[in-house]
Structures are given as C-alpha cells and as structure tokens.
Amino acid sequence: MSVDALKSALPGYAKDTKLNLGSVTSTSALSDQQLWGTVLATALASRNAQVIRELAEEAGDYLSAEAFEAAKGAASIMAMNNIYYRSTHLIGDETYATLPAKLRMSIIGKPGVDKIDFELWCLAVSAVNGCGRCLESHEKVLRDGGLSRERIQEALRVAAVVHATAVTLEGEAALAPATV
Question: Which CATH number is associated with domain 2-175?
Fold first, then answer.
C-alpha cells in the first residue's frame, strides 16, 4: 500500500508523523470520498513528487474518476485563490476585499462532486497554503452545510500530516549525499 510505502520511507526522528499518517488514513470518521479527496488534494498542495505519487495511487482505490479529478481541481483552484486572497488580506488595506477578483473560479460552483466534499478539500488545501481568509470562508460554508467541527478538524489533521510527510521526505532528499 502507498501509505505504507511512505511510512517506511520516513526516518526514525519522524516517528510521530509516521504514526499519524497511519492513523489519519485508517481511523477516519470522514467518508472515503472526503478522506481520500482530502489526502489527494493536500498531497498535491505539498508539491512533493514522492508523496503525490504514493498517495494518488492509493486515493485511486477509493475515489471515482470524477472525485479524483475534483480533488485535483481543488488543489489547483486553491493554489491560485490562496495566493490572491492571502495577499489582499496581508496588504492590510480592506479596499482590496471590495474589488472584484476577476479570476475564473467556476469549478467552485460546479465541482462535479458533492459541494461539501469539495469545500472540505479546499479548506484542507488552504490550511497547507496558509490562507486565513480562505480557511474562514470554506469553514463557514462547511458549517452552514451541516458538517461538524470535528469533521472539519479531521480534514485539518489530514492536511497537517500529509504536509509533514512531504516536508520530512523533501528534507531527507535534500540532505542525502549526491550520487554520481
């Protein structure tokens, strides 16, 4: 299994990450689509090729083709939105919040999967990318849609663990001696 391959690749000092990776992917109260869409979207947001390959392979066992594409779409649209909305927020001039973004975001309105699932994936990617404005917006939509704080927190845990896995493996690759 791909999660197992990543757990095996993690070094000893990342024991907590290894245990958490196993836990968040095997004991989740999220539906399979919610969980594995979150895993895939946050793996893509992590930008680590090894993590993306391994987790995409396993996510494919749980997601329909439409859900797989929608999770990729969540990672893509939030890569754009997180930069834009985080920047307009961090500038500190609220006038920017009143200006139209003029960015195409039609996938958010018609993601091809359950809207709550897509919003959950967007929230998780926003956590990885550190956009407070997007986190607030997606959390509100999720809560208004009936998702509990515990389920939202669970998606945030998945995002944190997937990202920690990616950062750890990227660091190990950078520290490894070059081979000729």
Answer: 1.20.1290.10
